[in-house]
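My convention is simple: the sequence line spells out the residues, with the fold written below as integer tokens. I include a record here:
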Amino acid sequence: MSTAKTLGLVGRKVGMTRVFTDTGETVPVTVIQALPNRVTQVKTVDVDGYRALQVAYGERKASHLTKSQAGHYAKFKVAPGEAMAEFRLPEGDTTDYQPGAELKVDLFAVGEFVDVAGTTIGKGFAGTMKRHNFGGGPASHGHSVTHRAPGSIGQRQTPGRVFPGKRMSGHMGVDRRTIENLRVVRVDVERSLLLIRGAIPGAPGGEVVVRPSVKSARRALRVRQIPVKQAPVKQAPAKK
């Protein structure tokens, strides 16, 4: 039965900066503002078939919501938010969560590894060199209008078509991406800021979801077995 930590936070990417360690090392970090996430609903096994927390983040006027959305917030007496997210709870977690409770940045600790998911920056319609890192055609004299061309994309009469999935020009960006195993460098509870080492997907102001690292949790559950060296067996000397 797994009791690994699964709760996360929804925040917004502020930008990138750097911090200095005591030894003078510079560490590039991404600043994430994660305002308190309010618990709007606690899902249970008896009612919903699984345990999870539904949280709201940000602020929004109730007049800008549909009647069903406004009624959902009013039912649990929680202030409306920009949107809602859900975090599954492990089977072994027996913590009693109540609607209206807040999840803050102190949910994470300095040195902890997290997975950050965001939406990449949209690039519009991109060619094969930008989208798929193609090398392009020869750039020497005599090659005209083929420097950034994709080259051959199909065969001749057989099969007489381009196979699906062929890497070609098209829409680039606006994809959901997750960067794994990023270390938390600082936690500012007063300003609701998380400083995470490395870059994360998305433009400044974009929505991101910070969760505990899945791989680090699995790595901690591994049982490392150290091989025991056995003494060599001494053989009796051969009789002459």
